[in-house]
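Hello,

Our lab assistant flagged a job as stuck in the queue for most of the afternoon. It eventually completed. Since we weren't sure the result was trustworthy after the delay, we are filing this so someone can double-check. Below is the sequence as submitted and the structure that was eventually returned. Let us know if re-running is recommended.
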Amino acid sequence: MNFEKPYVGITGLINPTEIEETINAFHNFGFFMDTNHIPMIGFLMSYRTLNDIPPKKLSTPNIKYLNWRLLKPRMKEVNGQALNMIHYATKEMQSLSEQVIKMFSELYNDNNLYETGICRAIQLNLKWPNPKSLEKILKVLPEIQIVQQLSKKSTESLSSKEVAQKVHDYEGLISYALIDPSSGQGIDFDPKRSVEIYQSIKEKLPELILGFAGGLTGENVRGKIKNLKERVGENKFCIDAEGGLRDQEGDCDDLNIKKVKKIQGAREILS
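-- returned structure --
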């Protein structure tokens, strides 16, 4: 298993300008690949974009989900200055391992994963994938870091201890678990419920790195992170922001770099 660090993530980037401005913002915050919290840039992928299936809303001017042909050049633009992470969604659960292996084979045509270092991480935005699928992925891609998203759909009918037991089924298979009831929609999370899940998982898997997402914006990030730190008694957790950093009106869904720059309020809490 790789040596992992908690990350501060911005997810949903689609073009070189957004990547450049976000990396500059991370550096201005004081987040680098050798700091205690590393920067993460998340690229949204789906079964549809992996297989050249057109989006359902053809009129949407700005699609956050990248076609697989754009994934490699966008990741190269990061130039090793952040952890590249694919955030992957699919309904075809039976063939999950084949899909992930196909995706990484497109990124690494020369099968030189570890020297190129373009991408080593994938977040599975799926409701409790079969652990055997993850085993198959890691057999072919042993250095890949897998993040399991704990979405509202995954956790709403379970107690915090039941959530922890299900996460325990992935012991040795996942590097991170992200408590994310928002799933990129900018919806606030319930800190009490999220912290209960965090603590229950930590009781079973104390070494697993956990994170929080949901409704994080430049305006609220400092207060939310400070509250979480006080509740869990440490700052060794990840945060990931997406929907709360975008301007969403009608069919428009654009990253607002001014909002991204305000995430620096997390730095003093996480340092």
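-- support follow-up --
The delay was a queue issue, not a problem with the job. The result is valid. The chain has one domain: 7-270. The mean pLDDT is 86.
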